Amino acid sequence: MPNIEEKLKEIMALVFDVPTTDINEDTGPDDLDNWDSIGTINLITALEEEFDIEFEDEEILDLLNFQLIKINLEEKLEV
Amino acid sequence: MNSYLELLKANAQLKKEQQPHTVDLLVLNNITTNPIKEYLKYSCAVHKIRAEVAFGDYDNIVQNAQDLNVEHKTVLIFWEIANCLHGLEYKIDTFTDEHLDALEQKIQHELKLTFDALSKASLVIMNRFTALPFTFLQTQNGALEALAGRLNHFCEQYAPSSIKWINTDKCMVQSGIDKTIDYKGYLKNKLLYKHDFYWNYVQLVQPYFNALTGQVNKLLALDCDNTLWKGILGEDGDDNIGMDENEYKGQPFAAAQYRAMGLGKKGVLLALASKNNAADVDAVLSDHLDLSLKEDQLVAKKVNWEPKGENLKKLAEQLNIGIDSFVFVDDSDFEVQMMRDQVPSVTTIQVPKNAVQYYIDQQEWSNYFIQLNESEEDAKKLEQYKQNVERANAETKFEDFAGFLESLDLELTIHINDAQLISRMAQMTQKTNQFNLTTQRYTESQIEHFVNNADYDCFAFSVKDKFGDSGITGLCIIHHTEENIASIDTLLMSCRILGRNIEYQFLEEVLSQVFKKTEFLKAQYKVSKKNAQVVDFYDKIHFELIEESEAGKSYAMKKPSFAATNAYNYIKVNYA
């Protein structure tokens, strides 16, 4: 799935209300004002909707930046 | 709008548009409701309102109500009964009576504190307590439902009447529990609601935001064929059009007539907008046995072959009300599209092809006319508008206008700081657009503050003439800002009473009262989209122009330069 990265970027930009250019591989909660605990919940809701997947609680704890979310998504969608 | 993500995308687009109105929202909750932000923003943007949305802390309603600045804010409260105590929904049936009693007292106490603390808010919208998500499979009512019922009863008794109550069961019923309640989210993050719940909720509350920003509709214009009755009068003939409520075919149309009459009773003006031969429609109005909506309930009939948009524009002029306060109902795609295209400020309702659906959709009609405070004045309006038409006819009999005015036996009655008029005064600030110098919108609690505060004086008036009584139709709020300095905070009048020099006589009276207390009076004209007709009002009555900009004009008047002109002696003045 080549466009996971693009889609994820787009969704994060929408959820956190920033331009896509503000998001890179290392972007994490410390970099974006709106990425707090509620922001994480909103992001999970949006990702679950878009990719028709479900995250477990333990996984959510690991979603610490763009790169880690991307890897998690790729694993989920390939299985 | 099918998903949260879609909503985010739509909002990203809408964010770029400038909105003429703003509402400042504060959401207080005892469960997690943060996703609602995007729904509120979207729904408001669609109604030309920019919504600023802030949240109180999780499960901290009482404290937040006391500590946060709620002035000029609209407060939405999500007080979920099941989360008044962790796990209450499954624990409550194990409680002893004493335990339950103590819990109920605690919640009541918190409710009272919250109501008191929120008295300064512009508007408070709160959900009725409901146990539905936790009991809908249960045959007999349990303790949670009983508690919800008692708390609702408590609120009915002790909550200020200005709080608007939302029954969230309606949000669940519309889309079903599966699509509205997120049990997994609730157990994980106290996130109880799903997409459809928020969507349905904002549809229910949006009319209040519209009213708060002065977007109040006043007139319902109804098409006739396949809207007021089934069938086409010109083709089927008056024997074959259907509106008999005892027949399946006719009942949805009889219902439409009654729905319209119900709105008429609340003060909404009803008019016909139909492409038909006027004589044919008149014959139905006077003779058709199944007709419920009678001619005397209509303020006007625009039955002809002209474009409906032009007809409504003319009607708006004749009644002297804004065309953006018109709601137009028609079954024809063409007419509805044409109206949207030609006169986009008119709100349109398309009658669905399926008559049963039409019958269901009619529930929504009243949403277009919701006001923040309804008053007795509203119900009298139809008579007054009809009197306007009579007056217009009488006017033609007199050669000179002054002679005509004298013949009217005009009487102006002024009420100063009258607490009984608080609701009506607030309503006027919210609804009056054209003759309104500053367009300040106030809620009842704000007006109440003015009435009871020595720094403010509220002058309201009613006008009577030999054709009838206008009711309370004008308001001037004076703010005594410093010793010997005052300013006109608000000056507005209903357009229904203009054209008889009432405005000049009223202001002359107000000024003579004000200058008993002060030496220097400031006034302002603030430009709005609709108040161009009063751009030079203060010039006309000899205020001194101090400053002029795109946003408006500032004026002042010193006590020595004020002199009553006594030019309008044919208007008798009383003080209530």
UniProtKB/TrEMBL annotation, chain A:
SUPFAM superfamilies attached to this UniProt entry:
ACP-like
Q: Where is the Carrier domain?
A: 2-77
Taxonomically, the superkingdom here is: Bacteria
Ranges annotated as spanning the membrane: none
Record's InterPro entries? ACP-like_sf, PP-bd_ACP
Q: Which residues form the signal peptide?
A: none
Descriptive protein name = Carrier domain-containing protein
Organism, as annotated: Gelidibacter gilvus
Automatic annotation (TrEMBL), chain B:
Segments passing through the bilayer: none
Q: Would you say which domain of life the source belongs to? A: Bacteria
Quote the SUPFAM superfamilies the UniProt record gives. Acyl-CoA N-acyltransferases (Nat), HAD-like
Under the GO molecular function aspect, what terms does this record hold? hydrolase activity, acting on ester bonds
The record's annotation in InterPro entries points to: Acyl_CoA_acyltransferase, FkbH_domain, HAD-like_sf, HAD_sf, HAD_SF_ppase_IIIC, SGNH_hydro_sf
Q: What is this protein called?
A: HAD-IIIC family phosphatase
